[in-house]
Amino acid sequence: MTYKLYTNDKFTKSFKPKCTIKMDNTVDTFNEFVVVGYNEQTGKTTLLQHADPLTLGQAYLLVSKAFANSIQTLQPEQLEELREFLGGML
Fold first, then answer.
1. Cβ distance 5 to 13 under 8 Å?
2. Whole-angstrom distance, CA of residue 13 vs CA of residue 38
3. pLDDT of 13-52, one tens digit each?
4. From CA 24, how far away is CA 4, in angstroms rounded?
5. What is the mean pLDDT of residues 63-72?
6. Residue 50: which of 32, 36, 28, 35 has the closest Cα?
7. What is the rounded CA–CA span in Å between residue 67 and residue 65?
8. DSSP 37
9. Is the pLDDT score of 88 beyond 80?
10. CA gap 71, 12 in Å, rounded
């Protein structure tokens, strides 16, 4: 999907959203993406996405598998804190 940007009712440019991630000396760029970001200073979690339903579904499965694996590493008090946070979801 291409987006068109207008300024004062005049076409300025067209663009395709992309997500560039730089991590461990590697740079990857994606045209379809689902990003979950967390800001430690504000305590806010944000979901940024430009993806079709299939990509969103794949992201959901990947995140749920990562979540299931990470739960196994929690100490009992951390697991209890997570249960309280999630309510009846866990």
1. yes
2. 31
3. 777 888 999 999 999 999 888 888 888 999 888 888 888 8
4. 34
5. 96
6. 32
7. 5
8. E
9. no
10. 48
Q: Looking at the 3D structure of the chain, how many domains does it have?
A: 1
Pairing label, strands 44-50, 26-30 = unpaired
HSE, side-chain direction, 13 A CA sphere, residue 46: 9
**pLDDT number for residue 2:** 66
Question: Tokens 């339903």 identify what position?
Answer: 53
The DSSP code sequence of 18-42 is: -EEEEETTEEEEESSEEEEEEETTT
61: tokens are 């499965």
What CA–CA distance (Å, rounded) separates 26 from 23?
5
Residue 6 has pLDDT above 90, yes or no: no
| Tokens found for residue 40 | 């430690």
60 is in which domain, residue-wise?
3-89
**Global confidence as pTM:** 0.66
